[in-house]
Amino acid sequence: MSLPKSVVGAGIRARRTGRGEEPVAQRMEAVLAIGRAIGSTLDLDEVLRLVIDHTSRLLQAERSTLFLVDPARREVWSKVMQGVEGMQEIRMALGEGIAGWVCAQGEAVIIHDAAKDSRFNPRVDRVTGFRTRSMVVVPVRGRGGEVIGAIQALNHRDSRFGDGDRELLEAIAAQAGVAIENARLYRDAVQVKEALAESVAELDVLYDIERKISSASSLEALLDAILAKALSAVGAEAGSVLVLDEEDGQLHFKSALGAKAAQLKSLRLPLGEGIAGQVAQTGEPVLTNDVSSNALHSPRIARRIGFATRSVLCVPLAADARVVGALELVNRKGDQRFEQHDLRLATLIAGQMARAIAVARERDEGERRARLAMIGQMMAGILHDLRTPMTVIGGYAELMADEPERDERRRSSEVIHKQLEHLSAMARETLAFARGEREILLRKVHLNAFLDEVRELLSRELEQAGIELRIQAAYKGAVRMDEAKIKRALCNIARNATQAMPQGGRFTIGVDQEADQVVFRLSDTGTGIPEEIADRLFQSFVTSGKQEGTGLGLAIVKKIVEAHGGEVSVRSRPGKGATFVLKIPA
Question: Model pTM greater than 0.90?
Answer without folding.
Answer: no
